[in-house]
Amino acid sequence: MPEERRRSIRFRLPRRARLPWQAPRGRTLFTRPAASPQRVLLLRIFFVAGLCVLAFAVLYLDRAGLRDATKEALGIVDLMYFTMVTVATVGYGDIVPITARARLIDAFFIVPIRIIIWFVFLGTAYQFVIQRVIEEFRMKRLQKQLREHIVVCGFGLSGAVAVRELLESGVDPAGIVVIDPQQSALEAATALGVAGLLGDPSREDLLQQVQVRLAKAVIIAVPEDAIAILLTLTVRSVAPETKIVVRIQEQTFQRQLRQAGADVIISSTKIGGLLMADAVASSYIVPFVNDLLSSRGRVDFKERAAEAHEVGCWSNAMPGALVIGLVRGGRLLSFYEDPPCLIENGDVLLVIQSTRARGDPPG
């Protein structure tokens, strides 16, 4: 292979040196039980009842080692009474074990059952009373801070990349909320410093809890296109004015998403296919596009309002920037279809510019 060809294949655009991004502080992880509270409570009642039946069965088999104040053999009712007061408390002393085996059973079998049942009681009280009060307090405190924030529905591969890119570009972690039904995904998201809500993002009550009506944008990065359409409909019904960005895999769903209310539709399959096709005949386009879209690259592609010192300049003679598009009055003027024009106050520019500060040495 010629030396020139080998050099072109190894071409890489340099990246800015940077320290690993660290979350400024931990964010609260709001959780919701996967099963309904009624089902969880019913399962725990059955579990406790099963432990009581097990304890009764063992005490019944060793009933000869138990005596009450009358010194008579205990009946079924007496054993049921002794089982319940023993697993719930330490007993009242009216029925006592009199043999070594009965005392060992009480010490090493009944006492652990009593501890397990108390843990179930305490856990139930925490989950259905204390935790709910704490979560509602924290959620209300978080809701007061949610204005012009970004809601990310789905923290899979695409959602995680989007959140990291937002953080790399300077977005405050306190202004990002992630909704995902997977606990592991939420733990990964909150490790970045953003807030997380565990649950189905298509549920209207969860969207209202994260103040989606006041959000700057909603990013929908769920794994299935059908769910993305349903979620877009739900978000649009709750937040008519919020910007919705949707990632899909199949290009055929674009029309349905437009009708559902999506503002920006990104087809990951199409974009990936186009870049792969370009990579066949070129060696520089793909790394340049990656560098252009990433906030860590040397080149940045931005949509921004014209600055004061740029007003009055020609669009094809901007110092330190390449203007490839100019939006004026809702109309896009592109460099490849429209002649150069003077930049006016209120214009929105599509510019490619270096991320290096002026005066920095190249490299």
Structural account:
α2 (37-61) packs across α3 and α2 (37-61) packs antiparallel against α4 (100-143). This protein has eleven helices and 13 strands. The chain is 44% helix and 17% strand. A seven-stranded parallel sheet has the order 1-6-5-4-7-8-9, sandwiched between helices. A four-stranded antiparallel sheet has the order 10-13-11-12, with helices on one face. Strands 2-3 form a two-stranded antiparallel sheet. The model is unreliable at 1-21 and 23-28 (pLDDT under 50). It is elongated. It folds into three domains: 37-142, Helix Hairpins (Orthogonal Bundle), CATH 1.10.287; 147-271, Rossmann fold, CATH 3.40.50; 298-363, Alpha-Beta Plaits (2-Layer Sandwich). The chain is an alpha/beta fold and 363 residues long. β8 (243-248), α9 (254-260) and β9 (264-267) form a beta-alpha-beta unit. The longest helix is centred in the middle third of the chain and has 44 residues, at 100-143. The protein has helices spanning 3-9, 37-61, 76-88, 100-143, 157-168, 183-190, 204-209, 225-238, 254-260, 268-281, 285-293, and strands at 29-30, 66-68, 95-97, 150-153, 176-180, 195-198, 217-220, 243-248, 264-267, 299-305, 321-328, 331-334, 348-354.
